[in-house]
Amino acid sequence: MTGRDSRSQPVDDAVRLRRSVLFMPGSNARALHKARSLAADAIIMDLEDAVAPDAKACAREQVAHALADGDYGLRECIVRVNALDTPWGEDDLRAAAGMKAHAVLIPKVEHAHDIERSVQRLASAGAPASLTIWAMIETPTGVLNVRQISAASERLNCLVMGTSDLAKILRIPHTARRSGLLTALSQCVLAAREASLDILDCVQLDLEDEGALIQICAQGRELGFDGKTLIHPRQIEAANRAYSPDADSVQRAARIVSAWEQASRDGSALVIVDGQLIEHLHADDARRVLAIAAAIDHALSK
């Protein structure tokens, strides 16, 4: 759950939890305040889709004030700006460069140069090196170019799937199985992993069908996503549960790591745990499970 650039992370030597990443309208000061008490791992303060055109400037100011006030604890704070080819994109990036955010989310990324231009704008506006970039992949062009996008900048830290426009352009229905989206979702996971980036699954728009949310969260984890973006606080629990290792997984991971370390001390190349042959890659996976569990425990203690 960490990308290449971990400098903005408040917890050293730990994975960055991104199980639940909640969009909050930047124009809603009450929502921005409420986010300080929610169990979401990260908050995306939105200046784009969730904000009407005549409220863009006000939302930008409110987000800046909310971040300046702080008190978001360990939650990662991200600002989604408007695209550079809109009337607000340039001003959003200049403002975001001076905000106390961990990352800036760029919408509708279709080409590597979309990231490069955004990075240049942030740098020219004096953004600190710790301010990373997230990229939304929302169109067929973005999916087809996702490998180049993922390698566009060292500032790039995370990919975010957006499937509303993608499904519309592909002319496929939104279903809990997401059959028509699986190729695109998997292609983006592959690109993210090649570039050592995190990747987040798309939002679930139906707030009433909890069963579908649970099914999609489980599917997203099976596909390799690190977490899920959300549009309502009521979705946080399902995402956190789906992307957290259960007790049995944590206990098994501990046994694997213990056995592997003992074998290494003994000079043995053969390790068997619970009847399964364990190799170095299994030990690495087990260490990651333990790191995620430790990060969750740390977050709950705050």
How would you characterize the overall build of this protein?
With 302 residues, the protein is of the alpha/beta class. It folds into two domains: 20-242, Phosphoenolpyruvate-binding domains (TIM Barrel); 247-301. The protein is 45% helix and 15% strand. The protein has twelve helices and ten strands. It has helices spanning 29-34, 56-69, 89-97, 112-124, 140-144, 146-150, 164-170, 182-194, 210-223, 236-242, 247-266, 280-301, and strands spanning 20-25, 42-46, 76-80, 103-106, 132-137, 156-161, 198-201, 227-230, 271-273, 276-278. The chain has an eight-stranded parallel β-barrel, surrounded by five helices. Strands 9-10 form a two-stranded antiparallel sheet. A hairpin with a 2-residue loop joins β9 (271-273) and β10 (276-278). α11 crosses α12. The longest helix has 22 residues, at 280-301. The two termini are 20 Å apart. 44% of the residues are buried.
Widest beta sheet: strand line-up = 1-2-3-4-5-6-7-8
- Series of secondary-structure elements, N-terminal to C-terminal: EHEHEHEHEHHEHHEHEHHEEH
The total number of structural domains is 2
**Shape type:** globular
Strand proportion? 15-25%
Arithmetic mean pLDDT: 93
Determine and state the CATH class of the largest domain: Alpha Beta
Number of helices: 12
Q: Indicate the CATH architecture of the largest domain.
A: Alpha-Beta Barrel
List the helices and strands and how they pair.
Blueprint: E1 20-25, H1 29-34, E2 42-46, H2 56-69, E3 76-80, H3 89-97, E4 103-106, H4 112-124, E5 132-137, H5 140-144, H6 146-150, E6 156-161, H7 164-170, H8 182-194, E7 198-201, H9 210-223, E8 227-230, H10 236-242, H11 247-266, E9 271-273, E10 276-278, H12 280-301
Helix pairs in contact: 3-4, 11-12
